[in-house]
Each structure stands twice: as structure tokens, then as C-alpha cells.
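Service request form, structural biology core

Requester: graduate student, group of Dr. S.
Request type: structure prediction, single chain
Budget code: on file
Notes: please return the result as C-alpha cells.

Sequence provided:
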Amino acid sequence: MAINREELTKIIETEQGINWWKPELFEFKIKSILPRELSVAANPPLSEQNYNCFVYAFGLQNDPKFLGGNNPVQQEFVKWLILNNILIVKQKPTTGDLVFYKNERGEITHGGILQSASTVISKWMWGPIVIHKLMDVPASFGDTISFFKRPDTEEIRKQYFVYKDTGVEIKPIR
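Core staff response, request fulfilled:
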């Protein structure tokens, strides 16, 4: 049975999303109502240790420079990586490749790591790490997916600071 993606969006966004990213609220209010097809690999971390899906996909979740929203890796950086051929499109993705989701406005809303031809592991916004089928994501993430060869984490870290040094305004996520 297919997951109701609109319902997933509602679950995540209830009470402005606070139940989704606060560990104690997630455990108490959300975890038990998630569809059984989703597997929670890790609950949300504490606020100062938290990070988004892009930080996770690029393997930066253990680097303090990318935690707590101070240097957020967001869609603009992902687009910059694509434009500068750091991220290379894959027509035939394989395990370990990156998968990015776009909404109808062309915004890159979400990223994860391909675990198999149909399974992804990803961090859903500032919430948990979830193992899910390719399209079993909230409707707000969009319907368009693209695959990319996953660059080395050190290369991504280096490119982030090159990007940041271009003078682009990078606002903390709060």
C-alpha cells in the first residue's frame, strides 16, 4: 500500500514542526503515528547537534562547523555544486549515490543516500533519519528526483568554504 504523502507533510508540520525536531516530543507525539513502512534509523539529535538532510547526505553530520544551524547547507549550495560540476548526474544510479527531490517550483527540497534501487536513507529536515522507499516522502518534498554521484565528504567540505567565500549570504537556520 502506498504511503499518504500529504499526511506525512501534515505530521511533520503540525505545531510548526516542533514535535518533529525536538527529541522528546518526537518520541512522545510522532514516532508511534508514522506509517509502518518507514523505519526510523535515528531520532532527532539535540538542537545544538542538529543538522539537515543535506548535511547528512554529504556526510558532514560529525563536523561541528555544520551543526546547530550555524553554517547551513541548503538548496542554494546544492545548486551551486551542480552548476560547478561537483555533483555529476547519474542516469543509472547505484548504491551510495545521492538522490535529491525537487518541488513544482524547482526548489531542491530534500536529499538522501541511495541504499538500494528503491530504498533511501535520509534525514527528514531537522527531524529523524529515516529509511524509506524512493517516493515514500512527504508531498512537500516534491515529485521530481535526480541522482548524482556522491563526492568525497572532504571535497564537499572544501567546496562549501569556496562557496561561502564568494560572498553569498548564508543565514543561520533557526
